[in-house]
Amino acid sequence: MGTNGEMKLVEQAKKGDMKAFEDLMKTTSGRIYNLGFRLLRNKEDAADIMQETYMAAYENLPKFKGNSSFSTWLYRIATNFALMKMRREKNKKVSVSELQETSGNLYDKALPDWSESPVDHLKNQELKEILDKAINSLPPKYRSVFVLHDIEGLGIAEVADILSLSEPAVKTRSHRSRMYLREKLSEYFRQSGTDVQKGSLKQERI
Fold it and tell me: Which CATH number fits domain 96-203: 1.10.10.10, 3.30.190.20, 3.40.720.10, 2.60.40.10?
C-alpha cells in the first residue's frame, strides 16, 4: 500500500470507520509481529506486543498528526512496548559498559574482511542461531537499533525518529552493535576452523 492509500485509511479510521482501521491492521500486522519477534525472540511475546500496539494505536489515533508515516508511528509504539518488556527481562545480558569496551578493543584485532553487517554472513542455521543468541544478549537500546536498522532495513533517520534519538546516536549504537556481533561470530569461526574472507565463508582444511 502506498503512502497516500495509507493516509486515506488513517483519515477514515479517525472518523470512526472500523473497516479502515482493520485494513490498516491487515497491511501492517505482519511487519509489527516480525519486529516484536526479532526484538523479543518469542512468538507469544511478539503476539502480545502486536496486540498492545494496535490497542494503543486505536486509542491514540486522534493524536496522530501525520508527521511521520502511519507505519513508522506503529513501529515506534511497538518498539516502546518491546523495550519495556526487554528491560524487565531477568536473563543475563551483556552490560552497556562491556559492549562499549568490546567495540573499542575490536579496532586492534584482526577481524575478517566483512561487509558492514554481520547478517550478510549467515550461511547456515547454526550461524543464525549463534547470531540470534548474540543479538538477544545486547542491551535493549542497542538491540532495538540493530533490529530496526540492520534487520528491518530502516534508514538511520527513520530509526532516529522511531526511537526519539539523534542520528549520530543511532549511528554510534549501530556501529557498536555490529562490532560486538562480529566479535561473537568471529569466536564461532575461530572455534570451528572457519575463515571469512571478502564476504564468503571458506572452510579451512584441518
Answer: 1.10.10.10
